[in-house]
């Protein structure tokens, strides 16, 4: 069953798309991300596993004296890392996420990245949940750890029809802060076409571990020389006629995009939130791996 519907009841094209994404994500997890995820995102501590007979070189502080007394020979306690974490995927599904000038929209890219992170989490016996948002909370799927649970989230990411067009990152983070009772890892996936989210992100990062995955389409950075075109804001519906044959217009557009991206990077860094910059015209695998490696090196 996926999201309340049995697999058999899903339209064939929907089922095929979900299966393709599952296969791709699970292959990446098995071949690329599994060890990296485990080493970067640590568990909450250690828990007792078992006792075994003492061996030369063992820490004498770990001797279990009760068992030693019963068995007549030294035994030591063994502990393992308590792995279970809570991972929350907060994914922007506002109207701008549907924009694309490439083969993949920002929303499709978000779904692929989220699916990979979700399968990495459940492969490590972690719980993963999903929050989709526009200028309000669209849907919340509480954390779980089964394959069926992840497939439900994939379906919602690909096929949920948002009720609104705008973006309110602050409202999404405030909602997560209210319902997430224990410390969690929050992957915030958005194009960040919003303002006023800084204080909510700062508050969330004090309690949780937050990673920002920022999504960009190349057309949002640079305009082609295509004459007069009418540009529409996907979220507000506002339209503007732009002469893209004018080199000055294209240069101004590019400068503004670069300035906005630089300001976002500075703000995230000041808050202490890592940014993983992803683009619809490039693979997300290497940027995500670089971010994981950098995070691991800092922790060491």
Helicity range? 40-55%
CATH topology of the largest domain: Rossmann fold
SS field, number of helical segments = 8
CATH class of the largest domain: Alpha Beta
Let me know the number of strands. Answer: 10
Taking the sheet with the most strands, its summary is: 6 strands, mixed
Instruction: Return the domain count.
Output: 2
What strand order characterises the main sheet?
5-4-3-6-7-10
In what range is the share of β-strand residues?
Answer: 15-25%
The H-and-E topology, N to C, reads as HEHEEHEEHHEHEEEHEH
Q: Judging from the principal axes of the Cα atoms, what is the shape? A: elongated
Please identify which CATH superfamily of the largest domain we are dealing with: von Willebrand factor, type A domain
If classified by CATH, what would the architecture of the largest domain be? 3-Layer(aba) Sandwich
Question: Distance N terminus to C terminus?
Answer: 42 Å
Rg calculated over all Cα atoms:
23 Å
Please state the average pLDDT score: 89
């Amino acid at each position: 069953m996926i999201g309340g519907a049995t697999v058999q009841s899903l339209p064939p094209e929907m089922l095929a798309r979900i299966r393709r994404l599952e296969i791709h994500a699970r292959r990446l997890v098995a071949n690329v991300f599994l060890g990296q995820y485990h080493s970067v995102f640590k568990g909450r501590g250690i828990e007792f596993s078992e006792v075994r007979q003492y061996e030369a070189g063992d820490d004498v502080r770990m001797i279990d004296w009760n068992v030693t007394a019963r068995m007549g020979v030294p035994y030591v306690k063994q502990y393992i890392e308590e792995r279970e974490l809570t991972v929350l995927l907060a994914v922007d599904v506002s109207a701008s996420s549907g924009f694309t000038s490439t083969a993949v929209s920002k929303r499709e890219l978000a779904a692929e990245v989220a699916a990979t992170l979700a399968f990495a989490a459940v492969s490590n016996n972690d719980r993963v949940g999903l929050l989709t948002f526009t200028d309000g909370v669209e849907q919340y799927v509480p954390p779980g750890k089964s394959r069926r649970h992840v497939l439900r989230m994939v379906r919602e990411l690909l096929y949920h029809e948002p009720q609104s067009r705008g973006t309110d990152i602050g409202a999404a983070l405030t909602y997560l802060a209210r319902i997430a009772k224990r410390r969690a890892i929050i992957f915030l996936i958005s194009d960040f076409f919003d303002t006023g989210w800084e204080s909510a992100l700062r508050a969330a990062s004090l309690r949780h571990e937050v990673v920002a995955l920022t999504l960009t389409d190349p057309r949002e950075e640079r305009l082609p020389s295509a004459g007069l075109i009418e540009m529409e804001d996907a979220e507000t519906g506002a339209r503007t006629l732009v002469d893209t044959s004018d080199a000055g217009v294209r240069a101004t557009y590019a400068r503004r995009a670069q300035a906005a991206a630089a300001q976002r990077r500075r703000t995230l860094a000041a808050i202490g939130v890592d940014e993983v910059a992803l683009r619809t015209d490039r693979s997300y695998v290497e940027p995500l791996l670089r971010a994981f490696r950098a995070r691991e090196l800092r922790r060491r």
